[in-house]
Amino acid sequence: MTSLSAPVQAVLELFQGPLADVRFADVNAASLATSAAEVEAAASAVAELDAKLVELRQSLAERQEVLLQLAQRAVSYARVYAEHDEALTEQLARITLPRAAKPRKASNAKSADDAPASSVEAAPIESAVAPAEEASTAELEEAAPAPEFPRKTKRRLGPPGRGAAQSAPTE
After folding, report:
1. Rounded CA gap, 79 and 47, in Å?
2. Dihedrals φ, ψ of 138, to 5°?
3. Which of 7, 36, 43, 71 could staple 3 via S-S, CB 3.0–4.6 A?
4. Helical H segments across the chain, by residue range
């Protein structure tokens, strides 16, 4: 794949073919070929750096995930430690960490332990301090009652008295 546009390639072909011996002030076949080679080299370097950047971002995401899991454990331990210390308990209640990303299941028969570290989907770590008057997500989930859904009833479809009655669930 080339990083040269089709019109630029057409000009290069003209100066390699019918205009190969033509020289203008600072434009000739050699100067165009040299410049095109420099563009291709720069595009190649950009592609290599892009690949390295993707790799580095993945590494960063994995490290952030490890730190998040460690921070979640630290908060859990600290909550137990702070059971009798109201001020510390309040400080811990203000901290809301995002949930850790769950590792993706391998598409083949490999277990999660056999999967490479790059298969872990990582979420970036964000600022995790909430205002004091707001409850944590876990506290809200515990306090909220389970939603009640209407019971499904069966309704007959079609005219009555024709063979076996068909029914479909409705709400």
Report:
1. 48
2. -65, -40
3. 43
4. 6-16, 29-81, 86-93, 137-143
Q: Is residue 110 part of a domain?
A: no
In a domain, 151, yes or no: no
**Hey, is 159 helix, strand or coil?**
coil
Domain assignment present for residue 154? The answer is: no
pTM over 0.70: no
- Please answer whether residues 68 and 97 qualify as being in contact, where contact means their C-beta atoms are separated by less than 8 angstroms: yes
- Total domain count for the chain? 1
93 contacts 129 by C-beta, under 8 angstroms = no
* 123-135: burial string, b at 16+ Cβ within 10 Å, e else: eeeeeeeeeeeee
For the chain, 171 residues long, give each residue's pLDDT as a single digit of tens: 689 999 999 999 999 999 999 999 999 999 999 999 999 999 999 999 999 999 999 999 999 999 999 999 999 999 999 999 999 999 999 999 998 777 666 665 444 444 444 444 444 444 444 433 344 444 444 444 444 555 555 556 656 655 555 555 554
Q: Which domain holds residue 75?
A: 6-103+117-137
